[in-house]
Amino acid sequence: MIAIDIREKLHEYIDTSDEKLLKLMLALAKEYNDDDDIEFSAEEIRLLDERHEKYLKGETTLHTWEEVKKAILDKGNR
Length: 78
Prior knowledge:
With 78 residues, the chain is mainly α. The protein has 4 helices and no strands.
């Protein structure tokens, strides 16, 4: 579906939807547009710094999405 078709379909929903759906769509649009405004607390920043230091020292490892997905799927198949 191309953008123009999506817009037309959304307009149909907007024109016929109830207040609850309109509020949900508005909240989704606001969240999508405001995601640059993420703020971290001092504690969250401290934890991120701590984890970064551990990574730099080789005390922890990172995993790719494929590795994580495989581990989850393998665990579910037991």
